[in-house]
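quick one: adenosine-5'-diphosphate bound model?
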Amino acid sequence: MTIPTGRKVIFYILLIISGFLVFAPTLMAFAMSFMSNKDIMTGSLPTSLSFDNYVRAFGQFPLLKYLLNSLIISLVIMLGQLILSSLAAYAFVFLEFKGRDLLFFVFIATMMVPFEASIIPNFHIIRDLGWIDTYPGLTVPFFAMAFGTFLLRQNFKQIPKELREASQIAGMGDFKFYLTVVLPVARTSLLTLGVYGFLTSWNMYLWPLLTTTNDNVRTVQIGLKQLQTQEQLNDWGVIMAGAVIVVIPTLILLFLGQSKLQKGLTEGALK
Amino acid sequence: MGQIDLVDISKSYDKQKNVLDEINLSIEEGEFFVLVGPSGSGKSTLLRMIAGLEDITSGTLKISNEVVNHLPPKDRNLSMVFQNYALYPHLSVEQNILFGLNAKKVDKEEQQKRLIETAEMMGLSELLKRKPKELSGGQRQRVALARSVVSEAPLCLMDEPLSNLDAKLRGQMRMEIRRLQKRLGMTMVYVTHDQVEAMTMGDRIMVLNDGKIQQVGKPITLYNEPANLFVASFIGSPKMNMGKAVFHADRNQLVIDDALHLEIDPVINNVPRYPNVTIGIRAEHLYPGTAENTTHVVEVINVEQLGNETLLAFEVGAEVWTAKWPGQWDVQVGEKVPVHIAIENLCFFDSDTGLLIKPARAGKQQEVVTA
Amino acid sequence: MSMNSTAIQQTPKSQINFEQVKKKQRMKNFSKGMLFLLPSIILFSVFLFYPLARTIYLSFFLTDAAGATTVFVGWENYVTMFTSPIFLQSMKSTFLFVLYTVPITIIISLFLAVIANEKLKGIGFFRTIYSSTMGISVAAASVFWLYLFHPSMGPLNLLLNAIGAEGIGWLTDTSWALFAIAITTIWMNIGFTFLILLGGLQSIDSSLYESADIDGAGYFYKLRRITIPMLSPTLFFVVTVTIINAFQTFGQIDILTQGGPVNSTNLVVYSIYREAFVNYKFGSASAQAVLLFIIILLMTFLQFKFGERKVHYQ
Ligand SMILES: Nc1ncnc2c1ncn2[C@@H]1O[C@H](COP(=O)(O)OP(=O)(O)O)[C@@H](O)[C@H]1O
Ligand SMILES: [Mg+2]
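yep, here:
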């Protein structure tokens, strides 16, 4: 199957124009982060490029600390989600017990409860636990994840039941089978889910806004908001530098895992 | 050791319909026992109950004279080979073979010793570092066998292990499995839906249909003296030719499907006098007629040349019968050919119950003349 | 001999034991299943089910600033909510916002997915570009658009000026602000929606297209008769997710407009946030949260009920 040249040209034109439009805001931010304030104010093309904005962003704000916090929080959430989801998915696929289907239905139902609808008592719980401004307060509420359980369940179901049976005959227990067979065999979907979990945790906004009051555990997203509110009037270059720092890790992750993510998410969503 | 007894074993998944019904069976030590039947007849279920992978609804299962109904698979001291091989895709051949020994915490030295022996025996020594997806179908099959061999369990269960292989490889593996079993002296319970496999491999065969035992016996017994119509038509290829038979005492004739008339000598032939009789005759017993012994002339509707033999199909009433003639015969479709049908080669079945009334006179077993 | 007799005696005893063994095994299976599920169940209970129940409970009370209940007021929070012009405005804005964002997001993403599904050289690059907005956080995206919407320096107004039109007060004009938030949101959504739709397109069996080619079907005919119908389960999913996301919008508003001007972008989650964490009126905020929950539940339900019928499953 070959595409006629005429149509090819049309497609490339469409692809390039759309690509430019979609990417323009990001591109603009990148460019501005290297431009001097004067160039930005006058709206001219950059006359000189420098890292000044980055230096100042890091100098004026504990950005490094925020980045580290975000990294820790995202990694912990990611791991927590992977562990809890895979354990639950294992039970739903490989174990047979009374009430399993009912429980699965309950898990699915939790997807319909928006976090925002229960955010008030959640905040109070974290406060009463003394978890404001702590890593647990920022991570633990997100460990249990219906979508992740669902996605991994779809994937585990493709593992032949005979693998479990062969291991039963060999005398291997469930937990060991989960660790030594299921997890390695399903590592691609675990990776997908991990990337997805990391992305969403890194980009979390409302919850860290509520539960962080000082720089100790503040995430980079909230840091960016602070940077923006304080610098708004004058220094767009610095703000954009901050924004670029925020998006770089996730963009890299996305560029690396785009095709896997697409496959994994489609599978979880649709099968 | 390694002897299995099934006493009144039944299985039901939905508590209504029995998938297996009152199975009574005893499998001897060192025996190659084949479970054969059409798909859905309950073979896998029975095998999995022996393995402990499936609950036993009622009845008693004994292995080596011990009741094991309640024991988990690992305590039954057996190994199993699955239809899809159940190889762990992320482990190498070596790790796959040693998987069970690791789980059972056999010590490393012993593991290596057995690994080397088994790999040697199965011709896998060169492949130990490969992953399953880098192996051909036959090699995967061999790894699955090796896993079973290395366990040194006295009892081995196999569920259609050859059905994913092509015909040629299947023939070769049949022989290999058979030789392996004899060499290691293990008791084998082997499930297949393929009657040729059953006939060629089994010391004894059990035919299962719809959850009920049809017949248990040596392959040749099943072939010569099928206990009922189901076994008669299931065992043997081409399948046994059948027809409704009516005995006319006045004319001393047996009329098959209102079409084929057989003369009967009432003195010699003891034809069963049942109201509804179905007769069966093997394809190789529909001999080519000679000038002296031709009993019928039939019109050939299909010819299959197999090289060493020729299959001729013709109509008998509503049925199509097949004759198997040794050698090559130059017969055209539509041609009329003489055949010789002898009463003593007929099996008689009760049409109502399907049970055998009288077998054909035993197939003449030929003796090997040793010089 | 003696061994034999004991064996015989044991048989009936072991018969009875089977039932017990089975029961024990069932118990064991159950507790094993629970063990695997326990972490999730506990966390769901603490951070989802209990808070949901608590929200409903709180919605019938007045509270102090710490969130403790003070006076039971019955349905009053709800009555106040539905008679408050600010909240009614908030509901209206929210529904308008959903109406703006969902169809446009889907149309744009579908277009991108269709053109990115061609087998052309370098297509991977374009796919990465189109999915890139998924990797951009609310905070960063809002900052980008804050500049784009800037009244004097913002590229959008510069562009308008360049073609001789008057600049727009994107974030300060009551008739434009909600639209500006919608544009930001659509842009942010494109990445994820595109990725899912592309996955849906790629899972369509290529033999369908091949047989259509043999029949001589044109590009748009195939698009209409094969692609869209076969994609409908994916579309269905994407629509549901986009709607739910739209109802949960928060970050864009917090950075771009803080609900203004004159509450025109005070969408429901922002309204809850303000009521609870700025005004410390947890009771009435909870009533709003309950409403949000019901709306989303209803949306999902309606989607399933009406969407599914039109959906074509393979
Ligand atoms: N897990 C199960 N649940 C319900 N019915 C089953 C299950 N496994 C098998 N069956 C039914 O039991 C019967 C026998 O199945 P099986 O033992 O797999 O047959 P075979 O191996 O001879 O093809 C079939 O009718 C099948 O539908
Ligand atoms: Mg089977």
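Chain A touches chain C through 93 residues (CB under 8 Å).
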